[in-house]
Design brief:
The protein is about 15% helix and about 40% strand. By secondary structure, the chain is mostly beta strands. The strands form three sheets. A 13-stranded antiparallel beta sheet has the order 20-21-22-23-24-25-26-27-28-29-30-31-32. The chain has a twelve-stranded antiparallel beta barrel with strand order 1-2-3-4-5-6-7-8-9-10-11-12. A hairpin with a 7-residue loop joins strand 4 and strand 5.
């Protein structure tokens, strides 16, 4: 490890220890034209509010930047940027490098205190092609409620104007393959930058800065614009917490414009979920005043089970909950439910418990609620009826109830359970508009016809057909990758597969043993590959750790979206061993080790932050035995991904959402087959690590 990297790690550790001192005037930073926390073009020492997710787009002369940023923790944030240059080949005709993708990381090593500034260290375009690559240390101090002052030191692009020397040695050339350019970090010329931010009113802010970016490529090499001055200034307008606009004078020659959308995953845009209010818990009469109500003789009635099941199903249907089956004794009832609408597992459990209090005779004291996912019992939540009755109107009733609730393995379906012959087979279908994004500004809009046929618990036939309506995706000739084209011919599938059969599969889900879950899927697994996929997962309901194994045999499909395999004549056996770990506070880690679609062997590590309302933001990286040169422009597979639930924005009860994965570049290495219904995410919602973060909704 280079001595500079050791110094930086030591600085991170020491500064983190220093932050135990109380902060004096901790402030939330604003965003710059790069979509990162900063001034205008320069970074600052501040951070966004924890968990802030932002989308930014800016126009700075001939440069358009689109950025997604996420404050992954109070100190750590990441950005994915897609940058486009107009008229790139004016000076050098035929050179078509007009776009670039990059990933940034920032870490706030000091929070602002009474006398000390906020201090942040950052890596910009840390794995890119060098067009935006830079590093910096920035400090920001607030003076009162209106004025902020920032000063910093930059390297790379941010050290290209007004250099004060190279304190850590010369800067080596950038890697041409998009691998982490760690040997460059904080090397070469360093240059200072500075700026001020003044809040004129509650809605208007003035910014001014001295920039250390010489824009060598854009000005001297390409002649895209003239950098006449290092000074930038401008005004920003923010009427509400979710949108901010900016207009700037840049480098004495250009006008800049920005638009930021700023979202807080912790707070719903609509304030809550619209839906019917829950029925109150029905309290039983006391045993002393009505002892006959507690007589268990009702269990001998021949039609008792069918009547109870029918009444319970009628109550739960209003919440989108179906009763798979019902089993009971005179003191205990077990109901298996399928939740198709409510986004929080705890709320589905609470609604079921309330309905049971209205339906079951007074002698039944124990409610066992088993959520069913793809025909598998995910867990068994045991609630005492007397706790429901006694805690409903008690302060902090969710916490008190959770202390008494027991979550265990679902176990087998009781032999005497009463089902409903009308539940299976079950057919459903839908025709919906769909958006497929290849990158932030390119993709297609179309219609997706999907259908599923559940002919017994755990047995599902499902498929979808997609038809493009509008597309601006780049279409091209076959890939020149030296690896099997398991992903890099994706544009050909878009061009020739219209309409296309995306999926057509038969899946079998089962519980082979306590704490074990299994899946076998056969058919057209995704638009590029078909075959068979099998998975086995070990996940105790109260364990932070889960282990899984998956094996696949696939053949590559033809690009026309039909049923054939003649175009590629490529098949492969792949498989992975996986470990999943819940670190708490919504942080999930995953490690996959095995063989990928192109025949390469390696590992993928990922970490996601998951919120109780369904938001999910994460990052991943894959390294295999494919060389960086053979992989392609981005060197290895890495990126960020996010899912935004529709109910967060619309306030309606739905389990659907919008998801996207962003990569700096695409390659064939590190690719896995995309199979619906992988087990860990399917069942985690009803285990303790999925129920507890949103347990308060059990009373809603």
């Amino acid at each position: 490890m280079h001595i500079l990297q050791i110094r930086l790690l030591a600085l991170l550790a020491a500064s983190t220890a220093l932050t135990v001192a109380p902060a004096h005037a901790e402030s939330t930073g604003t965003l710059n034209i790069n979509g990162a926390t900063g001034l205008i073009d320069m970074p600052s020492g501040e951070a966004q509010k924890d968990a802030t997710f932002s989308f930014s787009t800016s126009q700075a002369g001939p440069i358009t930047r689109t950025t997604f940023s996420f404050q992954f923790s109070e100190r750590l944030s990441a950005s994915f940027r897609f940058q486009t240059w107009r008229d790139w080949d004016t000076v050098i005709p035929g050179d078509s490098k007009e776009t670039d993708r990059s990933i940034d990381l920032r870490y706030q090593i000091l929070k602002e205190g009474t006398w000390r500034p906020a201090l942040t260290i950052g890596l910009q375009d840390m794995t890119g092609q060098g067009l935006f690559s830079s590093e910096y240390v920035a400090a920001t101090k607030n003076f009162g409620d209106r004025l902020k002052v920032t000063a910093g030191l930059g390297w790379g692009r941010l050290g290209s104007y007004g250099s004060i020397g190279a304190p850590f040695g010369d800067r080596p050339p950038v890697s041409p393959t998009g691998t982490p350019n760690a040997d460059q970090w904080f090397r070469g010329d360093a240059a200072p930058f500075a700026g001020v931010e003044y809040r004129i009113s509650d809605t208007w802010t003035f910014k001014g800065e001295y920039s250390s970016d010489a824009y060598v490529t854009e000005d001297e090499v390409r002649g895209l614009f003239d950098r006449d001055s290092p000074f930038n200034f401008g005004f920003e307008y923010q009427r509400n917490p979710n949108m901010r606009f900016g207009v700037y004078s840049l480098y004495g020659s250009e006008i800049g414009l920005t638009f930021h959308v700023i979202l807080d995953p912790k707070s719903r845009l609509t304030g809550g979920i619209a839906g019917a209010a829950p029925a109150p818990v029905k309290a039983r009469p006391s045993r002393a005043t009505d002892p006959d109500a507690y007589d268990g003789g009702w269990v001998t009635q021949a039609d008792a089970g069918s009547i109870l099941r029918k009444n319970l199903a009628k109550r739960l249907a209003a919440d989108g909950i179906a009763v798979e089956n019902l089993a009971y004794t005179e003191t205990t009832v077990q109901v298996r439910i399928r939740n198709s609408r409510i986004d929080a597992g705890s709320q589905a459990v609470g609604r079921t418990a309330r309905a049971l209090s209205h339906v079951m005779p007074a002698s039944v004291e124990v409610f066992e609620i088993v959520p069913v996912v793809n025909g598998m019992g995910a867990s068994k939540i045991t609630i005492r009826r007397s706790d429901l009755e006694g805690l409903e109107y008690t302060a902090d009733n969710a916490t008190l109830l959770r202390e008494r609730v027991i979550v265990t393995d679902a176990g087998p379906v009781p032999a005497y359970a009463i089902g409903d012959e009308n539940l299976y087979p079950r057919f459903s279908w839908g025709l919906r508009p769909a958006l497929r994004l290849a990158e932030p500004a390119k993709g297609d809009i179309g219609l997706r016809l999907s259908a599923s046929y559940n002919f017994a618990p755990g047995f599902v036939v499902a498929g979808s057909v997609y038809k493009q309506l509008v597309s601006n995706t780049d279409l091209g000739s076959p890939s020149t990758s030296p690896l099997p084209h398991v992903r890099t011919d994706g544009s050909r599938y878009t061009e020739f597969g219209d309409p296309a059969l995306e999926r057509l599969t038969f899946a079998w889900y089962a519980r082979p043993a306590p704490d074990f879950y299994s899946r076998i899927t056969v058919g057209y697994l995704e638009r590029m590959h078909a075959g068979v996929s099998g998975e086995l997962l070990w996940k105790p309901v109260d364990s932070q750790l889960a282990l899984g194994i998956e094996a696949n045999y696939t053949r590559q499909r033809d690009t026309d979206g039909g049923l054939g395999f003649d175009e590629y004549d490529y098949d492969v056996v792949t498989g992975h061993v996986s470990a999943y770990y819940d670190f708490g506070n919504g942080y999930l880690g995953q490690l996959d080790v095995g063989k990928y679609l192109a025949g390469d062997v390696g590992a993928t590590i990922s970490i996601d932050r998951v919120f109780a309302n369904g938001w999910r933001v994460g990052a991943f990286a894959t390294v295999t035995d494919v060389s960086a040169e053979d992989f392609g422009e981005s060197g290895f597979d890495k990126g960020i991904r996010f899912t935004i639930p529709f109910n967060w924005a619309l306030g309606t009860e739905t389990r659907r959402g919008f998801g996207m994965t962003l990569r700096p570049g695409s390659g064939d290495g590190g690719a896995r087959v995309d199979v619906d219904g992988r087990l860990y995410e399917s069942i985690r919602e009803y285990h303790t690590d999925g129920l507890d973060p949103d347990w308060g909704r059990v009373w809603r």
